Structure formats: C-alpha cells, structure tokens
Amino acid sequence: MNIALFDLDNTLLAGDSDVEWPRYLIGKGVLDADYYNRENDRFYADYKAGTLDIQAFLDFQLAPLAGRDRAELDAWHEEYLARHIRPIITARGRELIQQHQANGDLVVIITATNRFITGPIAAELGVEHLIATEAEIGADGRYTGKPTGTPCFQAGKITRLNAWLAERGQSMASFADSWFYSDSRNDIPLLEQVNHPVAVDPDDALRAHAQDKGWPVVSLRGAF
Question: Of 180, 182, 222, which is closest to residue 206 (Cα–Cα)?
Fold first, then answer.
C-alpha cells in the first residue's frame, strides 16, 4: 500500500475554511465584523509569512464554539458547508483523491484547521481519514474554546501523522511510495518526509523551494 496525504485549505479548496468560517458567522450576526475581519486578516497574513503564533490563533479560532449547543453548531456547519465550502472545492482535487483511492492508496487529509470545521469537509470529499487540530470538549459535551494535544501545524503535522500511523501499527516506512500535496511554506517539513512532494498552487516561498528541489508544481484550480 502507498499513502497519499493532502493539505486542505488552498490545496483541495480554492480558499481557506479557516477564513470562511468566521465570514459565515459574521453573516449570521454572531461575530463582530470589524474585529473578526481585522484579526482574521492579521492571522492569515502571519500564516502566509510563516510567522503564525498557532496557540494565539487557535484561541481566536475556537472561541466562537465555546459553550454553544452542539446541535446548533452542527446546523450552522451544514449551512456553512453548502454556502461557503462546496463552491470552493476544486473538481481536480476531487478527481485526484479518487485516483489515489482507485489505486488502493491510503488517502489522508492532514490540516492545521480544527476537526469541527474540517470533519464534514473531509466527508464531503469522500475521505475517511482526517488528521486535524483537535478542539477540547468539556464534561458537558460542549467545546471549551481551547485546543487540545499537539496542533497539526508545521512540524506538528509530522508528530501527529507519526502518532496516527503508530496507532495503526504502521510508519512512513510501511509505504513504498508516499505523496503529500500542499500549497504552503508551513508544510515544507512534511513535504520533505515523502518521496513524492507536490506543491499545489503554492505560495511564493513554497514555489521557490519546490523549484530549487525539483518538486512538481501543479494547480488543482485548472489542469496539470
């Protein structure tokens, strides 16, 4: 068996689910538009620059979930998925996932975005296996607004992937071939762990790194 890893935001999606979620909540009047747009833009700029304070961002990102009824959150997510996410899922991304699945590869989405946001998106893409940043759940069954465990970000993706594989009795050495598709400089550590790293619609830093290393540079927003 081979393994194919996919980043989600700006890779399989022609956009960022982390950005779209607060936009959705702003549209519902749940969040203050001025504050959240300003902070979201600031964190996103830091992410693209490779300087994101992941703990500060997660506190910001997860705060709107805190204490809310899970049924309400699930209903919101269904509407968010329909309005904000399905329109930015790339057809070529779906096809690439299906190609790997048809080849019998183990297909995994691995993303820094939290599981509440990304779980239903992975299901929409037909991907069973998701490694994501985990949101803490309190004794009452509601989100606390805090993360738990190692954030699935930068080198943390390697930590989380290795732990997930170990639970399955596997390691990266279990696979003859391995792919990772990503758009971001933040994923260079994991891209360097596979034997088929692929830069997808990459940011400038990843594009330069990929060209220097001779990695493929492709677009899932159009044709290869």
Answer: 182
Q: DSSP E strands: which ranges in the chain? A: 3-6, 106-114, 129-137, 143-148, 178-182, 196-200, 217-218
Pairing of strands 129-137, 143-148: antiparallel
Question: Does 223 map to a domain?
Answer: no
Measured CA to CA, the distance from residue 69 to residue 73 in angstroms comes to 6
- 75: in domain: yes
Phi, psi of 10 (to 5 degrees): 60, 15
pLDDT digit string (tens) for 116-174?
A: 999 999 999 999 999 999 999 999 999 999 999 999 999 999 999 999 999 999 999 99
Q: What SS3 class is residue 191?
A: helix
Query: Considering the domain boundaries, does residue 197 fall inside one?
Result: yes
Residues annotated as part of the active site = 7, 9
Instruction: Print the domain residue range for 169.
Output: 3-218
Q: Is residue 224 included in any domain, yes or no?
A: no
pTM equals: 0.95
Structural domain total, the chain: 1
CATH of residue 143's domain is 3.40.50.1000
Which one-letter amino acid corresponds to residue 141?
G
Q: CA-to-CA distance for 141 and 126, rounded, in angstroms?
A: 27
